[in-house]
Specification:
Layout: E1 2-8, E2 13-20, E3 23-27, H1 34-42, E4 46-51, H2 63-70, E5 73-76, E6 88-89, E7 95-98, E8 101-107, E9 116-122, E10 131-135, H3 153-168, E11 175-178, H4 198-204, H5 213-221, H6 230-240, H7 256-261, E12 266-269, H8 273-278, E13 285-286, H9 292-299, E14 306-310, H10 313-325, E15 331-336, H11 338-343, E16 353-354, H12 356-364, E17 370-374, H13 378-383, E18 390-391, H14 397-400, E19 409-413, H15 418-429, E20 435-438, H16 441-449
Parallel strand pairs: 3-4, 4-5, 5-6, 10-11, 12-13, 12-14, 14-15, 16-20, 17-18, 17-19, 19-20
Antiparallel strand pairs: 1-2, 2-3, 7-8, 8-9, 9-10
């Protein structure tokens, strides 16, 4: 018997391979799905079923691709926002045999209307289910977001409350297998831990401590979440079924002359923020490899061309993997070596870093043409803000940059300076020249002011 978690870095996506008696099932596979087939074959298992907990908003499902590779049946919930072209509908009470395991379907709407949970029963040990794949309904330390239906806020929050009661009724012994871990955009309070039980969550999950249905609804509709534009692309592809990921997940290596002669909608510098700030190609934006999954979908649209700049081949390859998982496949090439390019006479741009004293001085002065721009999310801003600063969430600069005056000066800040550099890089790529970054940002401000 096998149950293995497959984690997708960046997206904090958790998928699973479960097998018994020569058969196997995959839960919520990602687009680059060869890994499931390889692991199943290594264990002598045939993948017969693919279970989708819901139509994902933050990544492309690999279900139609894996089904074509294996002949497995794909099961998806009812009430999807369109006919899922590659799946059959599973409903409450349906069961599926995987060796000595039985997978039972629970309808758990709230996060999405089509949401399902899949309960694991071991027929050799019949006293309660062994575990449950909870998708985006219940996480370790949090529950699913309910903001995808803005016209039905109270209704869907109430549906999630009811779904959570179903999950809690499975018993404290049931092991929890969610679809995301900490760092995912699908929740805001997930624990760093990726293992738990229904019983532990019942006692410790903050949202499950809200006993009254109405109080739970009020708490959910008061949450702040952001929806990147690429979510709409994921919705469409996860109904229609996406094509397989590129077989070669490594961009074409460009020479310096080829890179400078290439025309791309976006030049993405994958290096760390301080390296980007110190020297970068004019017109390039800052998007470190580890931040691509969170922010590329805000700034890059379907079909737009991408040129990658890194410091080594590993950065280029990792970046392309992250991009293909969210459907941004149009990478025309990659280039390594900003310093060698500078040594060859290529002019580079820089973004200055400023400290707390400089920010204080500017705030206390009368610089009407200067703005301290806070790019943290709304919850961070609500918890603590610097008086006199302006707020635009980093992702929303994808469009709101056009409301800013390029003739004015801006200091970008966040919690530490990381997202601020991403924001500054985006503004720089849009033609803003009078920008700098508050190094240390809110962390440095608190350290200096107690």
């Amino acid at each position: 018997m096998l149950l293995e978690k497959i984690k997708t870095p960046g997206l904090s996506h958790l998928s699973y391979l479960i097998g018994s008696g020569g058969k196997a099932a995959v839960i919520d596979p990602r687009r680059d799905c060869e890994i499931y087939l390889e692991k199943a074959r290594a264990e002598g298992l045939e993948i017969t079923h693919i279970f989708e907990t819901h139509r994902n908003e933050d990544l492309i499902t690999g279900s139609p691709i894996l089904a074509e590779m294996t002949g497995a049946k794909v099961l998806h919930g009812p009430n999807a926002a369109g006919e899922i072209a590659f799946a059959q509908t599973a409903r409450e009470g349906d069961t599926f045999e995987i060796g000595q395991l039985t997978i039972e379907v629970l309808e758990t709407p709230g996060h999405t209307d089509d949401h399902l949970a899949f309960v694991i029963h071991d027929r050799e040990y019949a006293d309660g289910p062994v575990g449950v794949f909870t998708g985006d309904a219940l996480f370790v330390g949090d529950v699913g977001r309910t903001d995808f239906y803005p016209d039905r806020k109270r209704e869907v929050a109430g549906l999630l409350y009811d779904s959570l009661q179903k999950l809690l009724a499975l018993g404290d012994q049931a092991i929890l297998y969610p679809a995301h871990g900490a760092g995912s955009v699908c929740g805001s309070g997930m624990a760093e831990r990726e293992f738990s039980t229904i019983g532990h969550e019942r006692r410790n999950n903050p949202r499950l401590q809200i006993g009254e249905r109405e109080a739970f609804i009020e708490a959910k509709i008061a949450e702040n979440h952001y929806q990147p534009p690429y979510f709409r692309l994921m919705e469409r592809l996860n109904i229609e079924g996406a094509q397989a990921a590129p077989r070669v997940v490594r961009p074409k290596r460009l020479t310096l002359s080829e890179m400078r002669g290439a025309t791309a909608d976006h030049v993405i510098d994958l290096r760390e923020p301080l390296a980007y700030a110190g020297a970068h190609f004019p017109g390039s934006m800052c998007l470190p490899v580890g931040m691509i999954s969170a922010f590329a979908g805000w700034f890059i649209r379907e079909g737009e061309t991408i040129l990658l700049v890194g410091s080594d081949e590993g950065q280029l390859s990792s970046a392309m993997s992250h991009l293909t998982r969210i459907g941004l496949d149009n990478v025309i090439g990659g280039y390594n070596g900003v310093v060698p390019a500078a040594a060859n006479g290529v002019a580079m741009n820089t973004i200055p870093m400023v400290d707390t004293d400089t920010v204080k001085s500017r705030l206390e002065g009368s610089e009407r043409e200067w703005t301290l721009l806070d790019v943290r999310d709304a919850d961070e801003r609500e918890a603590a803000a610097i008086e006199g600063s302006m707020h635009i969430y980093v992702g929303e600069l994808n469009e709101r940059w056009s409301t800013l005056d390029k003739d004015k000066s801006y200091t970008l800040m966040c919690a530490s300076g990381m997202r601020a550099t991403v924001a500054a890089g985006w503004l720089a790529s849009r033609g803003f020249g009078n920008i700098d970054v508050y190094l240390g940002s809110m962390g440095a401000w608190k350290a200096a002011n107690g």
